[in-house]
Design goal:
Layout lengths: L7 E12 L2 E12 L3 E5 L6 H7 L10 E9 L2 E2 L7 H7 E4 L10 H11 L6 H11 L3 H4 L12 H13 L5 E5 L7 H14 L4 E5 L3 H7 L2 E7 L5 E8 H6 L4 H7 L5
Parallel strand pairs: 3-8, 3-9, 6-7, 7-8
Antiparallel strand pairs: 1-2, 1-4, 4-5, 9-10
Helix pairs in contact: 3-4, 3-6, 4-6, 6-7
Length: 259
């Protein structure tokens, strides 16, 4: 895989994540292109989510977790002692597996992050822009003061995406964002991801092979060795990974012969 350095938004080199003394993923090398969707696929327990969380230092919140190696974000070492993890989490936002709107109004869900950040602009415009960005505005514009919890599951997930967009990130991490949704809501989220990739770089963890094939530009296949330690098997353009993989383990996984 040949990529120009100027196209890379995240560069992971020799990344290993440990919980206490047990490695979860080991020696991962992965370059993430700007304004593309990168899918992380692999069997349960191979460390996909752990790797994803290393990209915005969410693993720092786990007392026994530690990360080794180097992760550059726009050329800056994410794990430098001079980097503020909280600021990184605004630049590299995260959408979780299950929708988790705050028990607040739709409006206040979107405004929460900008308010904490000291946003001084027009909040009404920011809320509308964020909801439009998540393809939700037309559905909720007449009930912005209703609880975010009153929305359907698919709408709640788009609300969480809008909440992420409101703090103007550069990268959006998505951890199984459709696993709790029905097929219609899943399709809406997938269409939204393609649209958002024009402005943001997206990294998605998914167990759904069809979803990875449909939405991603690049796919990384991660599996676990006999010690249950995650290792990167293959990484490349999604079309190549799904039609002509270089490793027999990749082929076995995407065809359902194991995993």
């Amino acid at each position: 895989m040949v990529q120009a350095a100027t196209d890379l938004i995240i560069e992971a080199t020799g990344v290993s994540v440990y919980y206490a003394d047990k490695p979860a993923v080991k020696d991962i090398n992965l370059d993430i292109e700007r304004n593309r969707i990168t899918a992380l696929i692999g069997p349960s327990g191979c460390g996909k989510t752990t790797l994803l969380r290393s990209f915005n230092r969410m693993n720092d919140l786990v007392p026994i977790a530690r990360t080794e190696g180097r992760i550059l974000f726009e050329g800056e070492d994410l794990y430098s002692p001079f980097v503020d993890p909280t600021e990184i989490r605004y630049k590299i936002g995260m959408v979780f597996q299950r929708p988790n709107p705050f028990p607040k109004s739709i409006y206040d869900n979107i405004a929460f992050g900008p308010r904490i950040n000291g946003f001084r602009g027009n909040m009404d415009e920011l809320v509308e822009r964020s909801l439009r960005g998540a393809a939700l505005w037309d559905e909720v514009k007449d009930r912005l003061r209703a609880s975010g919890l009153s929305l359907s599951g698919g709408q709640q997930q788009r609300l969480c995406i809008a909440r992420t967009l409101a703090v103007e990130p550069t990268v959006i991490l998505m951890d199984e964002p459709c696993s709790a949704l029905d097929p219609i809501a899943t399709l809406a989220i997938e269409d939204l991801m393609r649209e958002l990739s024009q402005r943001y770089s997206i990294i998605i963890v998914t167990h759904n092979m069809q979803q990875a094939a449909r939405v991603s530009d690049y796919t990384a296949f991660i599996t676990a060795d006999e010690r249950r330690v995650g290792e990167l098997v293959e990484y490349g353009a999604t079309g190549q990974i799904f039609t002509n993989p270089n490793d027999v383990r990749t082929e076995a996984y995407i065809t359902g012969r194991f995993g």
